[in-house]
Write a structure and sequence with these properties.
The complex is a heterodimer of chains A (201) and B (267).
Chain A (H helix, E strand, L loop, with lengths): L10 H64 L1 H9 L6 E9 L2 E10 L9 H80 L1
Antiparallel strand pairs in A: 1-2
Helix pairs in contact in A: 1-2, 1-3
Chain B lengths: L7 H10 L7 H8 L4 H8 L15 H23 L2 H28 L4 H7 L11 H5 L4 H7 L12 H7 L3 H19 L4 H25 L8 H4 L8 H9 L3 H6 L9
Helix pairs in contact in B: 2-3, 4-5, 5-6, 5-10, 10-11, 11-13
The chains are: A mainly alpha (201), B mainly alpha (267).
């Protein structure tokens, strides 16, 4: 469908279209700012994510060594028996948070397992390390989801900016030009008509 | 058969002769280098443990551990048999009591976490009861309190006094600690029957064990306030409650260790 189909070539419509294009151009500028900010946030977040994953691998190795030490010192039966005595479990609450209008889930740890008093010292150390890993995993999952939603929003914003810059605004400019041409033509016709009427007198 | 009092030299000799039953350094190394559990079992067959049969299900580590513990208790029994009467009785009590305390702890833990009687029975060390009458009776009790009450009239009856503390904290540590002290107290009492020289060695060994256990408990409570020292450390030997308090309160562990007497200071 042509950009000018359904267009009324009137002065009122021209003024309305010019007002609309100004608003759209201002909106596009805002969207560009948002896109740039999101891109910056995404780049920074990806660096942080990379660092956190690296740290996580080190901590995983530490936790695994601590767990192996506990197994070596106590034996599998005792480890299993002692771990059963931990009563409190990990309780989480998921809340919505927002960064530049992007909503992502934020995880709040409400209750943590009480391990120290019931476990042997080697197993308590391993449990502490494993719990640290679980907490890091939760934070990492939260961060990954945040990054993924920022990336999604960046894609949507970029598509919107592209559509506005390459389709909507050129179409509207074309419509304005079309109306202006039409109005010029009409006023020229009017002028010619007036001249002709004046000439015959 | 009554045991002849042949002296400790004979026991040392006979015990040393059993060295062939143990893994040597190379065998241990080969086992440690096994790629997986199947290879480990294959390599184990080449050692004095070769005659063992293990079920290769998802509980293979637990099954192997049971076999090793059984083997260990058999060897202890053999040593006890050849040990002079009084020392033999003591060794028998020392090991059986130790394993029984572990079993009682596991039964209490099982009840605390509402494990099934089958799960609890599966976690027990396969030994004959030493002080308790029957493990099954304890395993099949409905609650932890019932298990503790069933121990009334035995060396474990002081556990009953710890039930209010257990209920107050909803935690097993008061009962666990009491079991540790029951073990230490009884072993010390048993040493009275030993000759003076042996008694001194065994006494110091049991006291060291209790001291180390107390320090480990104190370390686990580091940074905590209002620790009830009397309840948590009812028995102390070489490391008293003031020293143990330092382990809980001092910022640096080294500082707490420096305040101890030898041999603990050299840790």
């Amino acid at each position: 469908m042509s950009a000018t189909s359904g267009v009324r070539p009137t002065k009122g419509y021209l003024m309305e279209t010019k007002r609309r294009i100004q608003t759209i151009e201002r909106g596009t500028e805002f969207l560009k700012l948002k896109r740039d900010q999101l891109a910056k946030e995404l780049t920074e977040s990806l660096d942080v994510l990379k660092g956190r994953r690296g740290m996580m691998m080190n901590n995983l190795q530490e936790a695994y060594s601590a767990l192996t030490a506990a197994y070596l010192s106590l034996g599998p039966t005792e480890v299993q028996s002692q771990t059963r005595s931990i009563k409190n479990t990990l309780e989480l609450e998921v809340l919505p948070r927002s960064v530049m209008g992007v909503i992502y889930p934020s995880i709040k740890i409400k209750e943590t397992p009480e391990t120290g008093a019931e476990l042997d010292i080697t197993l308590a150390h391993a449990a502490e390390k494993v719990y640290e890993i679980i907490e890091e995993l939760i934070r990492l999952a939260e961060f990954e989801e945040r990054v993924s939603r920022i990336a999604e929003e960046l894609g949507t914003t970029s598509r919107k900016v592209n559509a506005l810059e390459n389709m909507v605004i050129p179409d509207m400019k074309y419509t304005i030009k079309f109306i202006e041409d039409k109005l010029d033509e009409e006023s020229m016709e009017e002028l010619v008509r007036m001249k002709l009427i004046g000439g015959t007198r | 058969m009554p045991r002849a009092n042949l002296g400790t030299g004979y026991v040392v000799l006979r015990t040393h002769a059993r060295i062939a039953d143990l893994l040597n350094k190379q065998q241990m190394q080969r086992l440690a280098e096994a790629e997986d559990i199947d290879e480990f079992i294959m390599r184990l067959k080449e050692t004095p443990y070769g005659d063992i049969e293990v079920e290769r299900d998802d509980k293979i580590a637990l099954n192997l551990e049971k076999i090793f513990i059984k083997k260990f208790t058999e060897r202890i029994e053999e040593i006890v048999k050849i040990t002079p009467a009084r020392m033999g009785e003591f060794l028998h009590a020392y090991f059986d009591f130790r394993f029984e305390v572990l079993n009682v702890k596991r039964i209490l833990r099982g009840k605390f976490t509402d494990s099934t009687p089958e799960e609890i029975a599966d976690s027990l060390i396969p030994i004959d009861p030493y002080i308790v009458k029957d493990y099954d009776e304890l395993v099949n009790a409905m609650t932890l309190e019932e298990v503790v009450m069933k121990l009334n009239g035995t060396s474990y009856e002081t556990l009953i006094e710890k039930l209010p503390l257990y209920k107050e904290h909803d935690a097993l540590w008061p009962l666990d600690l009491e079991l540790n002290y029951i073990y230490a107290r009884n072993i010390l009492r048993l040493t009275e029957k030993l000759p003076a020289s042996d008694r001194r060695i065994v006494n110091s060994l049991v006291k060291y064990e209790t001291d180390v256990e107390n320090v480990l408990i104190a370390i686990k409570r580091r940074g905590k306030e209002d620790v009830d020292m009397e309840s948590i450390f009812p028995v102390t030997y070489g490391i008293d409650r003031d020293d143990l308090k330092k382990f809980i309160e001092e910022e640096s562990l080294n500082k707490a260790i420096d305040g101890l007497d030898e041999p603990y200071r050299s840790v």
